[in-house]
Amino acid sequence: MAGMRGIDASSADTLRAAGMRATRQRTALLSLLTAAEGPLPVEALAKRGKGAFDTATAYRMLEAFQTAGIVHRIELAQGRALFERAGTHHHHAVCRSCGRIEDVEACVPASIDERVRAASGFARIDEHALEFFGLCRSCV
After folding, report:
1. What is the pTM of this model?
2. Which of 6, 40, 41, 125 has fewest C-beta within 10 Å?
């Protein structure tokens, strides 16, 4: 695997715990997501993989990771999907000028989920996504 030294051993364990084979490509991709400072588009992950996998393969692996619950897919207003390791529930603040993305640990009260459930007629609300858009301090 060209360019993928120092792969995170815990990524292989995470894959196995999710019932997946810990192939070199999967372990490399999950290690990249673990090391990332924020959510990334699949093209950036393929580039950072330095030939370990192509974009189409990365998409297939990310879909499997998402199904297994080890990554989250984030859809932003720019129409692109970003991926990050699953972990603590959080939201994102996105700069409309430079595209910078910051994690936001604040969340809406559970009562909002309940109000949405009641208003929609759904039997339950399993999760929600909330993104904030504005300008970062560097772009003001």
Report:
1. 0.77
2. 6
Phi, psi of 73 (to 5 degrees): -100, 130
Cα–Cα distance, 27 to 20 (Å, whole number)? 10
Max mean pLDDT range (5-19, 61-75, 86-100): 61-75
Q: What DSSP character marks residue 128?
A: -
**What angle do the packed helices 24-35 and 9-17 form, to 10 degrees?**
110
Q: What pLDDT does residue 111 have?
A: 87
Looking at residue 56, its amino acid is: A
Instruction: Find the radius of gyration of the CA atoms of the chain.
Output: 17
Range list of H helices, 1-140: 9-17, 24-35, 42-48, 55-68, 110-120
Q: Which residues have a Cβ under 8 Å from the Cβ of 138 and sit 6 or more positions away?
A: 95, 98, 100
The three-state secondary structure class of 65 is: helix
Q: Is 122 helix (H, G, I), strand (E, B) or coil?
A: coil
Single out the residue of 116, 29, 123 nearest to residue 68, CA to CA.
Answer: 29
